[in-house]
Design a protein that fits this description.
InterPro entries: Acid_resist_chaperone_HdeD, DUF308_memb
Strand content: under 5%
Number of domains: 1
Pfam family, one: DUF308
Oligomer: single chain
Order of helices and strands: HHHHHHH
Number of helices: 7
Protein name: Membrane protein
Shape: elongated
Keywords: Membrane, Transmembrane, Transmembrane helix
Number of strands: 0
GO cellular component, one term: plasma membrane
Amino acid sequence: MTVSRGSAARTGPEHHTDGTAPASAGSPVDTLAALGSSWTWILASALATLIPGVIVLVWPDESLHVLAVIIGLYLLVAGGFRFVDAFSREGHGERLARLLVAVLFVLAGVLCLRHPMQTIAALSLIVGAVWLLSGMLTAYTALAAEDIAHRGFALGMAALAVVAGIVVLALPTQSAVVLTRLLGLWLVLLGVVELGVAFAWRSALRRARAAQMSGPTSTV
């Protein structure tokens, strides 16, 4: 769950009106920060969540092995997006929380891919724990950051992740089909919410860009 930080008119690397960041000649951290602040990066993160959800919903009769591989790949890719997103956070506590989420996703993804023949209960435990903990950390970030943009979206995503984690952990799954539909549904919901964040962030960037362009003219 990638959450844009700061107001659209914050200081730092300037963004183009399409939401992409220009090439930076600074350190790798600056490059990662510019990339993570791009609305297209948030959009790609949303699609990385939405597409696996659609896949597991369209083919719910696939084996547990296939499900574990899809979920493992989703967790790895999502962890990569969250790692880059962490560097767009200026606050130390906020960045640390994001890095912890990224590490959690990557470790869970490796575990799913390393042991794809694990039981349904084990797979549910892994995914449910990841969603629950990441939702709690996202809520902490949204509440702790003073200048976070679209705080309501961030808290909504956090609440959705926490509920998803609790549901997956609490409800017994009797078959791979039940688990597939449950996980697929939550992935689609999380992906749709993150799409909303991406387009809201694009609008904020465009408004900030328009304000910067009209500023000098209004002072003449």
